[in-house]
Amino acid sequence: MLRIGMLTSGGDCQALNAAMRGVVKGIFSARDDVEIYGFQDGYRGLIYSDFKMLTSRDFSGILTRGGTILGTSRQPFKMMRVPDENGLDKVEAMKHTYHKLSLDCLVILGGNGTHKTANMLREEGLNVITLPKTIDNDLWGTEMTFGFQSAVDVATDTIDRIHTTATSHSRVFIIEVMGHKVGHVTLHAGIAGGADIVLIPEIPYDIDVIADVIQGRSAAGKSFTILAVAEGAISREDAKLSKKEYKEKLAKRKYPSIAYELAEQIEKATGKEVRITVPGHTQRGGSPVPYDRVFSSRVGAKAADMILNSQYGYMVGMKNGETVAVPLEEVAGKLKFVDPKCSLIKEARMVGISFGDREGDEPAEEIAAAEDVRAAEADTKKEKKEKKAKKDKKEKSKKSKKEK
Ligand code: F6P
């Protein structure tokens, strides 16, 4: 009997179901004596032994379905070694579930944080195979992640739709694109949608350059400008701040996100009306595009092949268009950024896209700092969330005391 545990962890994306289908179909193509245990809501299901037994039928008809049939949740890697509110050791609990069910392996679908925990479970002696899921395409060790092309499709469609209304008005439009700390989605959607300015975290921007581009377009008779802005985009000044200084700045920031800060700066510098569109989670929703269906089926089938050969401790990735096994210890904890000197950036510049920098700017130093400040931003967001949760809890207990 082959017993496989499966879970999807972190933010969802398109093609999670297609990837699981690939694994299950691949395994059942070779043997029948297989039990599949689907853990509910990612690592949470593994920690609290919340699972359902699934058959191959459960994976039928889900190739095109968005989301994940297993549910998902964010279980930060940082918190994995911290006992839960009842003192439960989460790592021991996950190992206990694994052994209790006599699993032969765990198939884990996830992004960066998920891979850190997957690698830890490997170090703890569990058999693990992972699949590269994230719209951000920022996983180290693979050229591609599933969800990415679908997200680019949605973001591009948003830019296309803005284009038609932009041509009717003399306005500046900002489309804020997801991608966490990296700019892959923004870069691709920006080029595909014909954005005039593309701002990504890997190339810190200068607001004066942005204003010059907008004014230059106006002078050339083009009264509108479209900016594709990564949610993690950062100015040159901010990129130079220390992590602590930037954290302090963010704590005081009055804007909900970078697009709003930029809009105010652009209006001030150019006198033009600015509009903001944030497609947000629509970029992760809906059906996967054909590329993602094919790619996720391939990595799923490759994972099945590896399970059938008891080859564990790897992420299935893609290199030069071929599926490959990448050791988990090489993947965990590393991000794949856009290389500001890559040919794609160079070619984008040649077709007239501005990255908000000046020719000859040496971004290397700023990039290092930008990575730091993005981490600071994540910390601040988390602290704010924790503070709010504490406050809500306090108010709830006050209320229930009053009611009593
Ligand atoms: O990692 C995928 C992603 O969509 C990022 O692009 C984005 O920053 C983040 O997740 C949003 O997370 P959540 O769904 O928890 O708001």
Task: Give me a quick take on this structure.
By secondary structure, the protein is of the alpha/beta class.
Could you characterize what this model shows?
- By secondary structure, this protein is an alpha/beta fold.
- 45% of the residues lie in helices and 15% in strands.
- The chain has 14 helices and eleven strands.
- The strands form two sheets. The protein has a seven-stranded mixed sheet, with helices on both faces.
- Helix 1 links the parallel strand 1 and strand 2.
- The radius of gyration is 23 Å and the shape is globular.
- The chain binds 6-O-phosphono-beta-D-fructofuranose.
Tags for this entry?
alpha/beta, seven-stranded mixed sheet, binds 6-O-phosphono-beta-D-fructofuranose, 404 residues, globular, 14 helices, four-stranded parallel sheet
Q: What is the element layout, followed by pairings?
A:
Blueprint: E1 2-8, H1 16-28, E2 34-39, H2 43-47, E3 51-54, H3 90-100, E4 105-110, H4 112-123, E5 128-132, H5 148-168, E6 172-177, H6 184-192, E7 197-199, H7 207-219, E8 225-230, H8 236-240, H9 243-252, H10 258-270, E9 274-277, H11 290-308, E10 314-319, E11 322-327, H12 328-331, H13 343-350, H14 364-403
Parallel strand pairs: 1-2, 1-4, 4-5, 5-10, 6-8, 6-9, 7-8
Antiparallel strand pairs: 2-3, 10-11
Helix pairs in contact: 1-11, 5-6, 7-10, 9-14
The structure holds 6-O-phosphono-beta-D-fructofuranose.
6-O-phosphono-beta-D-fructofuranose is lined by residues 11, 74, 111, 134-136, 178-180, 231, 284.
